[in-house]
Amino acid sequence: MKIYNYPSESAKIKVIAISNRGLDFRKEDIAEITRIIEDVRENGDKAVVKYTKRFDAPDLTAESLQVTPDETDIAEKEVDKAFIKSLDRAVSQIKAFHKHQLSKSWINTERPGTLLGQMVNPVGAAGVYVPGAKGGMTPLVSSVLMGVIPAKIAGVRHVSMMTPPTKEGTVNPYLLVAAKKVGADAIFKAGSAWAIAALAYGTETIPKADVIVGPGNIYVTLAKKIVSGTVGIDMIAGPSEILVIADHTANPEFIAADLLSQAEHDPLSSAILVTDSEAIAKAAAAAVEKQVECLSRKEIARESLEKYGVILVVPDLAAAAELANRIAPEHLELQIKDPFEYIGQIRNAGAIFMGNYTPEPVGDYIAGPNHVLPTAGTARFASALSVDHFIKKTSLIHYSEATFKKEAEDIVRLAEIEGLDAHANSVKIRLK
Q: What does UniProt list as catalytic (predicted)?
């Protein structure tokens, strides 16, 4: 990894290149995904099966789209007890965290003659997309937990999970066991854009969702972007990213391992170290070079680091915080002496990991907070996937006759200033 002094012109150019990498949707991809979505909208199961047979499972039929209880029973016999133990801990801790996010309905009667409030209700149905275990990927069990658990805690009545099948038309047993553990109501063997389209519009077999969440490749992300508005979505997520702020007390080996934990995701992933110690910068760079050679995905990690990895040496930790707020990273680690005294300086980050023994994977799997986080600088205005994504808030308004008459003149005046005569008349007619 290259080391730059910041601020400097070369460092600023590198930071801009990293910040602007984002998601680049090509016109031909938009046209192709739109065509697939319309095909599923018009032809339902027939289209979903057609694309699944073409790209995933050649022998899949409409009758085998949905995972059966027998398939789940078989899966439970194929996973080991150690996995179940780890799964139970993760589920327990993720549930405990998300329960704190529950909102309650409320009513206020402080103004005489009025009742104002808000009703909080869950959406009726949700879809959770989980990438499949294929093409060198391993089963993303954590995506099952992070998608289904907040939906269930919100009170969603029906949660559908979508995941692409293997060539043999099966679903990875670890995904099935996790889905049953967290209460997914139905699991369907479909992936990519056609899975998102099926959730957005419904088919003969797959129920329509009100909200779609979960990570996926660029085609899944683009499909979610296109159907957004027809259904709710969690976010338009880009490649993974991490920014580590470190001082002289940090462990270079820890820093290197954490940077690589994101670099191995994707050639577009970014890994940034910001430190006020030149010694730490040099030691971390050396540790990255040593550790990357031990990774099974080292080619991906190397490409990521070459294009979107950087080490920035800043004058002090205040400058580090200013830079972090400008970048607004998905994952921000504070490997510094007093992280709790420092967090007040951080305004923009998807999640903050504090201390030498809180690496980013703690949050990915088991700590409790959701790992679906805003990327590409959107932490300036967006938040992690939460229970709130699965609820809707409805305003309540009631006026007594006396209070209505007391405020009527003001309502009429504001309506007439806007030139909306019918609005004004709906008030005036009650005064006659």
A: 330-331
